[in-house]
Amino acid sequence: MYICLLTLVLLHAPAAFVAQNATGILVGKDHCVCEVLLPDSSFPAKRVGALEDETVRLSNRVEDEMQKLEEQDIRLDTYFERIINLTKRVEHLEKLRPEGLIEINFDLLKKEIKELEMYVTAMRAKPNANSAQVESLYKEVKNISKTVGQLETLDKNNVLKAKREMESLKKRLVDCEKNNKPKAPVTVPLGSCQHQGLARVSKPNLLQLNWKGSAYKSGAWGKDAAWNTTKKSLYWVAPLNTDGRVLESLRIYPSLFDLQMYRNAMDLPLSVLIKNKWNHTFAGQGGGMVVHNNNLYYNCYNSRDLCRVSLTSGVYQRKPLSSASFNNHFSYSGTMFQDIDFASDEKGLWVLYTTDESVGNIVVGKVNVATFTVDKSWTTTQYKPGASNAFMICGVLYVTRSLGPKMEEIFYMFDTKTGKEGRLSIMMEKMAEKVHSLSYNSNERKLYMYSEGYLIHYDVALKP
């Protein structure tokens, strides 16, 4: 057995040398072999781990830098494409004559060049940029910017030319407007009958519920409808009893504001209570009443007589209407006891009724207000129960019918001047299904409707 001297360098202790004796075996004449077991703590595991972490970080940085280079190459390709496009556009401009530059949008070109300059300048400042490509881009952008500036300067004279042409064009347009000035729309003066008849009706305008309440569904309302009346601001409301027949009183308001506020009203009784019993001698029936020259005209209760009462004095008058049907014999569809229906227009007072001889067709009668008689009448071919209501404008009868709960149609007309009748189709929207009265006012050119207890009005347009 021999003794071997071993010198070991321990890696985990920097620059440390350790000398130890060990037992060995002689092999051959001059070789000594011995076994040495080194402990685990001699291997530098911590430094190897740190080396691995550093390797990962370096790998990530390399990948990031490679990605940035790829993105930069993509941006460079994009900028090159934009510069090529701009170059082609500028070359095209250079070939134009000066007068051809008038319509060129130099502001848009300059904006694009400015953006490219900003991008290229930012890239020049980056340390990892491809300097050769960036410098090439920068020079091309500067050259294009200079060329566009020169072209814009060249265009200044053409701008003056364009301005002169624009001033000339403006003058020609002004002259053209003077020669072809559109004519103002022709309107028909109020009270005039020089027109081609009814053109259209506006949408309904709801005012309010009648003063007696929602249970009083039938009745009439409006203003003094006589043309050029002295009572143009006066309003009246006449609800029938809940039976839809009897008119016992009406209420008069001095203005629209008073009507809306239900104030300053004057009641005019038509029925009188005598010994605990109502006397209907001067009461009315149906919703066919109208106020004309401060007088209420209506159908006398339970008769074919015509009644009128002065709103000022309260004096009553009545006259029979010969052969007229009454007591709901031929009323409009949808409303009761309107066999006799008064109407007022630019030409005076009218009464619309039926007779047994007309077999329910509407008869138009012209009322002489001085004698309170019907001087002349015209029999139409329109069956009254086939209509929902009617009104007069300038001596022409217009008849309506229901097309459903929300729509009414003016479908028939009869001209008392010519004796000719005709068909038409003018739509009227409704707030409720039934039309209990409908009358025209020539002073305002409006229609007044009483429907299911509500006060509604429409504007009317005439054909010039």
Automatic annotation (TrEMBL):
Coiled coil (residue ranges): 52-96
Olfactomedin-like domain sequence ranges: 192-464
Compartment list: Secreted
One GO term (biological process): signal transduction
Entries under InterPro entries matching the protein: Olfac-like_dom, Olfactomedin-like_domain
Domain of life: Eukaryota
Entry keyword Cell cycle: no
Keywords carried by this UniProt record: Coiled coil, Secreted, Signal
GO cellular component term of the entry, any: extracellular space
Pfam families in UniProt: OLF
Signal peptide: 1-19
UniProt keyword annotation of Coiled coil present: yes
Protein name from the UniProt record: Olfactomedin-like domain-containing protein
Source taxonomy: Eukaryota, Metazoa, Chordata, Craniata, Vertebrata
